[in-house]
What we know:
- By secondary structure, the protein is of the alpha+beta class.
- It is built from four helices and six strands; from the N terminus they run E-E-H-H-E-E-E-H-E-H.
- The protein has a six-stranded mixed sheet, with helices on both faces.
Amino acid sequence: xxxxxxxxxxxxxxxxxxxxxxxxxxxxxxxxxxxxxxxxxxxxxxxxxxxxxxxxxxxxxxxxxxxxxxxxxxxxxxxxxxxxxxxxxxxxxxxxxxxxxxxxxxxxxxxxxxxxxxxxxxxxxxxxxxxxxxxxxxxxxxxxxxx
Length: 147
C-alpha cells in the first residue's frame, strides 16, 4: 500500500517505483560506513525485499531508508541516509515520523536498528540499547563488501 506525505518542498513516499536506485547505490557504496562497495545488484535485491521510504525535493531523491520486516512481529530499520546538502533541516526527523506512522509497522513485538552515531535521533522514536544483549547473536562473515 503506497502512501505519500507532502511537507513544505519535500515529498515523502513509500512507493518503490519512485526510488532512484543509482543515487541510493552511490551513497551506500561510496559514502556510508556500513555498506562500502556494496554491489548494485545487492542494493536492488535489498530494495525488492524491504519496505522502502524515499524523500524527494523537486523530484530529486535526497533521503532513503528501508525496513526489513514480516509486518507482524519484527522489523529492522536499515540503510537510513540523508544527502549531506539536506542535513540539519529536519529531514531525518520527518523521515522517521513518516516511517513510524506506517500502519504496516504498528504493533510489532520488536523493531531494531544499528547505528554508530545517531542514537539521539532514534531515541526520540522509542529506540534504546538492547535490554538483553546476551540473548542476541549474529553471523558476520565480512566487515565490508570487497571491490
